[in-house]
Amino acid sequence: MTEAILLVGGKGTRLRPLTVHTPKPMVPAAGVPFLTHQLARARAAGVEHIVLATSYLAEVFEPYFGDGSALGLHLEYVTEHEPLGTGGAIRNVAERLHSGPDEPVLIFNGDILTGLDIPALVEAHRTAGADVSLHLTRVEDPRAFGLVPTDDTGKVTAFLEKPQTPEEIVTDQINAGAYVFNRSVIDTIPAGRPVSVERETFPGLLAEGAHLQGMVDSTYWLDLGTPQAFVRGSADLVLGRAPSPAVPGRRGDRLVLETAEVAPDAKLTGGTVAGARTVIGSGARIDGSAVLDGAVIEEGAQIRDSLIGAGARIGARTVLDGAVIGDGARIGADNELRGGIRIWCDADIPAASVRFSSDQ
């Protein structure tokens, strides 16, 4: 059975303050650490052995997931003590793989939420006789991504990093962050130094005449690298727009975990999550947001498209729109925070002291 590597070592800098105390793949999405969704989807696709390439806050993963048996998996953990990049991280875990030289190994980035048909990617790889296969997706504005043009057989012809001019945008296909490598190709990646698969490994293989195949899969795809995207991804999991067998409850307009306390007249909509031990007061209105474990939302608060960190407290009648509130922060009553504002962990904002939008 195909085995996999999950790259979960990034610092999640763009997601701060969510990642101050928690590595990005362990931030809850739809009620469980995001990594749980990836592991569950891999298992549903027939993967049994997964090696996690960890680095930042590496000590958090194994106590939570253990050997993986609760998910029907065999998990192993390898920690890089100095940043090695995507390629270096893949090479760093190679000794834990069981596959033979010509067998396929799946590789996933730990911050992508996707409906990718995993067995179809493996089958396309085998059918094409490729050395490496890439999941590609199409986007309307590809300027923030690496372009991957292919010929009419799906064979990759180039790797073009983040084009800026119209002339450089030769395709709308981008690297979607999931790959199949033949095991022998992994062994050619230089060991013990930083390597980028996007900038070094893939272009190098192409220059050497290797067969790199692209498979366009235009199902759900979202890079969860920003707080706004993370909130959206969590809501889409709850709403059923993004597939996962790991959502802990029925999909719908809201997900309320068993130990949460929600006032009868509070209204939770748009894929909102009320995490474990959360308390949501009378008259609160929460739309498309994630309220993480132990947070308190006082009466009459209005929250939209926001993420409330673990143990945070939002005061009565406070308005949040597109806000990110760090773990343990306290926002007093009658404040207004909009437009992507981020409040750091354990911050304390007095009542009626702030009316702020970062768009102003």
UniProtKB/TrEMBL annotation:
Residues 252-333 form the Mannose-1-phosphate guanyltransferase C-terminal domain. Gene3D superfamilies: Hexapeptide repeat proteins (2.160.10.10), Spore Coat Polysaccharide Biosynthesis Protein SpsA, Chain A (3.90.550.10). InterPro entries: GMPPB_C, Mannose-1P_guanyltransferase, NTP_transferase_dom, Nucleotide-diphossugar_trans. Residues 4-236 form the Nucleotidyl transferase domain. Signal peptide: none annotated. Belongs to the transferase hexapeptide repeat family. This is NDP-sugar synthase.
